[in-house]
Specification:
It is a single chain. 82% of the residues lie in helices and 0% in strands. The chain folds into two domains: 79 residues, no CATH class; 83 residues, no CATH class. It is mostly helical. The protein is built from eight helices and no strands. The longest helix has 27 residues. Helix 2 packs across helix 3 and helix 3 packs antiparallel against helix 5.
Length: 170
C-alpha cells in the first residue's frame, strides 16, 4: 500500500479531515485509536476461533492462520502502518535490518535462508514482547525466568538452523 494520508482516510470514510482532527486529534490519535481497537477486538476473535478446537496442533494452526489472514486482509493493519511517518518508518526499517544482519552474523546463521529469517523474527519479536511486558509489569515479572524459558524454547530451533546451514554448505 502506498503512503496514506489523513485526507485519504477522511475521503474513504466519507467524513471531513477536520472531523478526524476533532475526534482523534490528528494522525497520531487516529493511529492510536486503530491500534487500541485492534487490541480490544482482535484477542476476543482469536479466543473464539481457536478456543473451541480440541487438538493442540490444530488449535495452533488455526491461531497462526487467523493472524496470517489478518495481516493479509485487515484494513486496520494496513492503515496503522500506512499512516506512520514514512521517513521514520524507512529509517527504522534500515536500522532493524542492519541490526538483524549483525545478529545473524554473530550467531553464525546464513543470511539468505528464509527459515533463519523466521527464526530471527520470532526471537526478536519475543524479546521485544518481553521488554514491553517487563516495562509495564516489572514488579510481578521474573525477567530472568522469562528469558531462560525463551532460550529453552528457541535453542533447539537455532541449533537445527545451524545444522541445516552446515549440511547445505557441506
Amino acid at each position: 500500500m502506498t503512503a496514506l494520508s489523513v485526507q485519504r482516510v477522511a475521503t474513504e470514510a466519507n467524513v471531513t479531515k477536520s472531523a478526524i482532527s476533532y475526534h482523534f486529534g490528528g494522525k497520531d490519535g487516529l493511529i492510536r485509536a486503530i491500534i487500541e481497537s485492534m487490541a480490544v477486538k482482535e484477542p476476543d476473535e482469536a479466543r473464539m476461533a481457536v478456543g473451541r478446537i480440541e487438538d493442540p496442533a490444530e488449535r495452533f494452526h488455526a491461531f497462526i492462520s487467523l493472524y496470517l489472514d489478518r495481516v493479509r486482509t485487515n484494513v486496520n493493519f494496513r492503515i496503522a502502518f500506512a499512516l506512520g511517518p514514512t521517513e521514520f518508518n524507512d529509517e527504522k526499517i534500515r536500522v532493524s535490518a542492519r541490526t538483524a544482519m549483525l545478529d545473524m552474523e554473530a550467531l553464525h546463521l546464513p543470511l539468505g535462508d528464509p527459515s533463519v529469517g523466521v527464526l530471527m523474527a520470532v526471537l526478536m519479536s519475543a524479546i521485544t514482547g518481553l521488554a514491553f511486558n517487563y516495562r509495564s509489569r516489572s514488579a510481578v515479572m521474573d525477567l530472568d525466568a522469562c528469558f531462560a524459558q525463551l532460550e529453552r524454547a528457541m535453542a533447539p530451533v537455532y541449533l537445527e538452523a545451524i545444522a541445516a546451514a552446515g549440511r547445505s554448505r557441506g
